[in-house]
Amino acid sequence: MTKLNDYDKAVETYEPVLGLETHIELDTNTKMFCGCSTTFGAEPNTQTCPVCLALPGALPVANKAAIEATIKIGLALNCHIAEWTRFARKNYFYPDMPKNFQTSQYEEPLCENGYVDVVVEGKEYRIEIERVHLEEDTGKTLHVGGATGRIHGATESLVDYNRAGIPLVEIVTRPVPGTGALAPEVARAYTAELRDIVRSLGVSDVRMEQGSLRCDVNLSLNLPGAEWGTRTETKNVNSLRSVERAVRYEVRRQSALLDAGERIFQETRHFQETTGETRAGRSKEEATDYRYFPEPDLAVMEPSREWVEQLRSELPEPPRKRRERLQAEWSLGDKEMQSVVNADAIELIDATVAAGTTPSGAVKWWLGELSRRANESGEELAALAITPAQVAQLQGMVDDGRLNDKLARQVIDGVIAGEGDPADVAAKRGLEVVSDTGALETAVEEAIAANPAVADKIRGGTHAAAGVLIGAVMKATKGQADAGTVRQIILDKLS
Amino acid sequence: MSTISREEVAHLARLARLEVTDDELDAFAGQLDVILESMKTLAEVNTDGVQPTSHAVPLVNVFREDQPQPSLPRDAALAGGPDTYEDRFRVPRILDEEA
């Protein structure tokens, strides 16, 4: 049983130092060094060729779109773009690469020395980027046999090389000291910002749950004023929440070891999504002995300054600037904006406003009813079967007085069930606010007759009691009355 | 005295997945020693200000447009492997933590 310290106590005694390594799969049409398609989810081993299978005599050629995407990422992270750069072989024997090496970069990465600023609890942290380099993804291995086996009694690995050779960008930070108790939140904020920056560039869909953005979290602890401690590297961290949990867990685990006078081993650990623990991996002997050398089959690269400046001029508005602009345009407070960011609703709200709704109307639906539904079904907000244009139409009907919020929620049911746009659903389901005051007056009179004691209270000046009658009228009209109108009719009749 | 030890040869052999007998360790250590000695001669040349050569061909920026090309038919791809199962390459299990 792993001993864990209380988190708050741990960070009173020790100072954490973070480091983050992020891998991002680019969404180019073809692989890094060959023309094989990169379509996700294809049948196993249908997207391979002599180059990515490392058949004898095959020659790789670098994908220009991947180089441009990496330079753009470097520029967006304020990096220097190398004048001279090349690929290198990282040698290891493992069946996830048929070549027995991975084409990567070593001493001459494409981009170096950048930074990202993130704000956590009102304080700004500068995360320095050591390098951004380009490499290729590995194949997918499936371990079978023994107790879990798909092949009974076997102990084998099955390999699909469709993913082998897909361009992969690795982004490495310098060590980040000085975050104190907020280390988990800073790690998360950095990962989220990186994701948003890359997404804004349109070079990757950066979906952590699909593995197109993968995170390794390095963490060490030291006493104040002492040298930095030995770090562990936690892999398999596949959501923003997991980044935060992995840091927190390592702080608690390492501090307990240090308190007990034990030492931390430099090791690779694996994050367990279900329990939030990190577990030591079986360490590969000589794992770091990769014997890198320059890749002889690929020409060196000398990105011209004209090319780099051309790519710089194509960069979109940085996500942080855009957030600040939208926050002002939408007149949201810092807290509200934070909720929007946390719900991943910026794009959705922006598109809803663009479709003609007030910002407050758009925020209300996406952060309220729709977030609630997404949480219930365990989906992302963007995955709900309702579009920003449909939300805009819905709110338009509320603004026109044709729907109240209660009816609007029933309309959402219909839209999500695939019955069409809000106007269609309202028409088909007969959902419309009753604006015929004659019908409402009849319903109010019936409610008064059925609740004489309540009516007397209201006559006596207790207007709050009107709620009971409003409720009765709403029930009678199946929620299709406007509550404000009903209230007014009740008070008119009983005063 | 060899500049390269038996242990280093054993280490390299392990990295290269080569099975080497005790006798061979001694033999290879001796041979590698000769090679390293020869390289020392080269190292005497003054290379100040000379960029290391990794490529003999004077080519830079050789790129490919991002246009998909046909892949191999699956059976042809799998034909190069030692064994297959359910459209995948089948290999001995490697003992390593893998998610």
Automatic annotation (TrEMBL), chain A:
Record-level Gene Ontology MF annotations: ATP binding; glutaminyl-tRNA synthase (glutamine-hydrolyzing) activity
Pfam families the UniProt entry points to = GatB_N (PF02934), GatB_Yqey (PF02637)
Q: What InterPro entries does the database record attribute to this sequence?
A: Asn/Gln-tRNA_amidoTrfase_suB/E, Asn/Gln-tRNA_Trfase_suB/E_cat, Asn/Gln_amidotransferase, Asn/Gln_tRNA_amidoTrase-B-like, GatB, GatB_Yqey_C_2, Gln-tRNA_amidoTrfase_suB_CS, Gln_synth/guanido_kin_cat_dom
What general EC class does the enzyme of this chain belong to?
Answer: ligase
Q: Boundaries of each Asn/Gln amidotransferase domain copy?
A: 347-494
GO terms (BP aspect): glutaminyl-tRNAGln biosynthesis via transamidation; translation
Look up keyword Lipid biosynthesis and say if it applies: no
Catalytic reactions of this protein: L-aspartyl-tRNA(Asn) + L-glutamine + ATP + H2O = L-asparaginyl-tRNA(Asn) + L-glutamate + ADP + phosphate + 2 H(+); L-glutamyl-tRNA(Gln) + L-glutamine + ATP + H2O = L-glutaminyl-tRNA(Gln) + L-glutamate + ADP + phosphate + H(+)
Q: What is its EC number?
A: 6.3.5.-
Q: Which UniProt keywords apply?
A: ATP-binding, Ligase, Nucleotide-binding, Protein biosynthesis
Question: Superkingdom, according to UniProt?
Answer: Bacteria
Oligomeric state and partners?
A: Heterotrimer of A, B and C subunits.
Family membership: Belongs to the GatB/GatE family. GatB subfamily.
Relate the protein's function as given in its record. Answer: Allows the formation of correctly charged Asn-tRNA(Asn) or Gln-tRNA(Gln) through the transamidation of misacylated Asp-tRNA(Asn) or Glu-tRNA(Gln) in organisms which lack either or both of asparaginyl-tRNA or glutaminyl-tRNA synthetases. The reaction takes place in the presence of glutamine and ATP through an activated phospho-Asp-tRNA(Asn) or phospho-Glu-tRNA(Gln).
> NCBIfam families annotated for this entry?
gatB, PRK05477.1-2, PRK05477.1-3, PRK05477.1-4
Which PANTHER family does the record cross-reference, listed alphabetically? GLUTAMYL-TRNA GLN AMIDOTRANSFERASE SUBUNIT B MITOCHONDRIAL AND PROKARYOTIC PET112-RELATED, GLUTAMYL-TRNA(GLN) AMIDOTRANSFERASE SUBUNIT B, MITOCHONDRIAL
**Protein name as annotated:** Aspartyl/glutamyl-tRNA(Asn/Gln) amidotransferase subunit B
Organism of this sequence: Glycomyces algeriensis
Its gene? gatB
From TrEMBL, chain B:
Gene Ontology BP annotations: glutaminyl-tRNAGln biosynthesis via transamidation; regulation of translational fidelity; translation
The molecular function terms in GO held by this entry are: ATP binding; glutaminyl-tRNA synthase (glutamine-hydrolyzing) activity
Catalysed reactions, semicolon-separated: L-aspartyl-tRNA(Asn) + L-glutamine + ATP + H2O = L-asparaginyl-tRNA(Asn) + L-glutamate + ADP + phosphate + 2 H(+); L-glutamyl-tRNA(Gln) + L-glutamine + ATP + H2O = L-glutaminyl-tRNA(Gln) + L-glutamate + ADP + phosphate + H(+)
- SUPFAM superfamilies recorded: Glu-tRNAGln amidotransferase C subunit
**Known role:** Allows the formation of correctly charged Asn-tRNA(Asn) or Gln-tRNA(Gln) through the transamidation of misacylated Asp-tRNA(Asn) or Glu-tRNA(Gln) in organisms which lack either or both of asparaginyl-tRNA or glutaminyl-tRNA synthetases. The reaction takes place in the presence of glutamine and ATP through an activated phospho-Asp-tRNA(Asn) or phospho-Glu-tRNA(Gln).
Q: Which NCBIfam families match?
A: gatC
Describe the protein's quaternary organization and the partners it interacts with: Heterotrimer of A, B and C subunits.
Q: What is this protein called?
A: Aspartyl/glutamyl-tRNA(Asn/Gln) amidotransferase subunit C
UniProt source species: Glycomyces algeriensis
The lineage, from the top, is: Bacteria, Bacillati, Actinomycetota, Actinomycetes, Glycomycetales
